């Protein structure tokens, strides 16, 4: 018998790895599956980014180990982007670190800030990584409930003082996965004030900061005065540039956090392929607003087709202003997992049961806008027909 570490059993299997298996099995059975489950953009990376990778891949210097903290060119492009987009001035050599996707940075920052019995404040529902890595690091996740009546924002005043004192790290994520909620600068000001009062690193997962609709533009937490003392933002090229497979992102913020993250990372990984970083720099440098605007128009059309179509069929839900997820209350107050299973069996449409993101997700399912408009319309039709029969 092998003696596996107990930490492996402390965390659940990654929900999407299991969903993936289920998807393959259904496809093999010949089901015409429409998967609204994982948030993985269906469109290709823009050509000018792919071309840059090809050029950079031919340069022998790029074949060696990359610079630990990330290439100077990539970090500079991130700093330039923060200045241009948010009016935030950061020093690329001390405030920016290249990541092998933001998931990697989010995981490692927890190892740099959370140890035995430290509290990590995590939203519920949320991207599962904050909770899982806290458990792996021996910390205690304290769930901050995101309620609809509060616009899916946590209430810092509800966190007991003794919990706040034991907390070393907090996670926020706006535009939000899975709820699609957005936060304004006032909220980030409160978060920074809270972090400063209790000496808590405020980590903001900004994976969807560019994915917004109806004229709304999302702020960076680093726009708050004094944020660079307690906040660290995780930026990702995955979603805005259709680059999920490339694994490139950046941590931007508090020097102390970037330095600590660097100590964990240099002892763990050796960075991302320099050619990929340079292609990422090109994506950020080339006034990406047009490309992103084009993508957002597309997601907006899909969002409207889904939400308007289902509303007409009697299933009411709100339109998200950000992210590419629709967070829909289960009709008739049914159980999320049972409803998701029922939809899958009756219609071949795959949605994610809310509890995958935490207990507070019960009563909801998440639908991702990462299939084309025609398929979304097909999904709406099938689900509409099923809902009618069910009433
Ligand atoms: C997709 C996603 C990420 C991971 O992005 P990568 O940069 O591809 O690792 C991080 N946070 C949230 C909330 C996401 O939805």
Question: Can you put this structure into words, describing what you see?
Answer:
- The chain is of the alpha/beta class.
- It folds into 2 domains: 13-42 and 289-390, Aspartate Aminotransferase, domain 1 (Alpha-Beta Complex); 47-286, Aspartate Aminotransferase, domain 2, CATH 3.40.640.10.
- Helix content is 42%, strand content 14%.
- It has helices at residues 7-10, 15-28, 47-57, 72-86, 102-113, 129-136, 161-166, 185-198, 227-230, 255-266, 274-285, 289-312, 336-347, 373-390, and strands spanning 34-35, 96-99, 119-124, 140-145, 167-172, 201-205, 231-236, 249-253, 325-329, 349-350, 352-353, 364-368.
- The strands form 3 sheets. Strands 2-8-7-6-5-3-4 form a 7-stranded mixed sheet, with helices on both faces. Strands 9-12-11 form a 3-stranded antiparallel sheet, covered by helices on one side.
- The structure holds pyridoxal-5'-phosphate.
Offer a few descriptive terms.
391 residues; alpha/beta; Aspartate Aminotransferase, domain 1; Aspartate Aminotransferase, domain 2; seven-stranded mixed beta sheet; three-stranded antiparallel beta sheet; 14 helices; binds pyridoxal-5'-phosphate
First CA to last CA: what distance?
A: 53 Å
Uncertain residue segments: none
Strand numbers in spatial order across the main sheet: 2-8-7-6-5-3-4
Strand content: 5-15%
* Multimerization state: single chain
Overall mean pLDDT stands at: 96
**Tally of discrete structural domains:** 2
Write the layout of secondary structure elements.
Layout: H1 7-10, H2 15-28, E1 34-35, H3 47-57, H4 72-86, E2 96-99, H5 102-113, E3 119-124, H6 129-136, E4 140-145, H7 161-166, E5 167-172, H8 185-198, E6 201-205, H9 227-230, E7 231-236, E8 249-253, H10 255-266, H11 274-285, H12 289-312, E9 325-329, H13 336-347, E10 349-350, E11 352-353, E12 364-368, H14 373-390
Parallel strand pairs: 1-10, 3-4, 3-5, 5-6, 6-7
Antiparallel strand pairs: 2-8, 7-8, 9-12, 11-12
Helix pairs in contact: 3-11, 4-11, 5-6, 5-10, 12-14
Bound molecules: pyridoxal-5'-phosphate.
